[in-house]
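Posting this for the archive.
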Amino acid sequence: MCCVYACNRGWLDNGEARIAFGGIPVDEAIGREVLRAVQPAAVEAAVQASQEETRRQDEVLEALRRDLEAARYTAQRAQRQFDAADPENRLVTDELERRWNQALERVREIETRIAAQQDGHAQHRPATQKEFEELAANLEAVWHDSGTDTRLKKRIVRTLIEEVLVDVDGAAGEIILVIHWKGGVHTELRLPSITTLSDYGSLPEGFLAS
């Protein structure tokens, strides 16, 4: 079955030439890169990235806790100033009450952010070295199994890849793919173009993912 990717957004928005190219070589190339991404070296990098993300989340949480401590101190000081003010002086007490309320609102805001951070941390337990290795060992067999549901492959791609951009180099007769992996790493691939139109675009929505 023939597969062709096409992108008409540039033509629709700006009257630029349409872009289209054979999809099967692209799918196969992306599949090879996905499998390469879970090889031993990549697994080690993934473990390190996972651990680094855990450390980063811990640092964010610790910074929020420090902010909360400071906010609570400010709120307590504002309360003491309000309590010590002459109740007959409404201008002063109104201003001190406003500052106290602002300080309390800041405390509640930081407490909410800490709760959200803790919830997110609990829901995203870092994968272990063993779990990454088991994924790598099983993925290639699953990927090449003719009985594997295409939707599963799409879910795998969504998990690993943020987006894929394509630049068609007409002079060289090549399709240039730029894979943006989750986590910020980029990979560039160059493939012979079979069916091409135009010179730049992004892979249409649905590429291995819809």
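The CA atoms of residues 75 and 103 lie 5 Å apart. Residues 195-210 have pLDDT under 50 and may be disordered.
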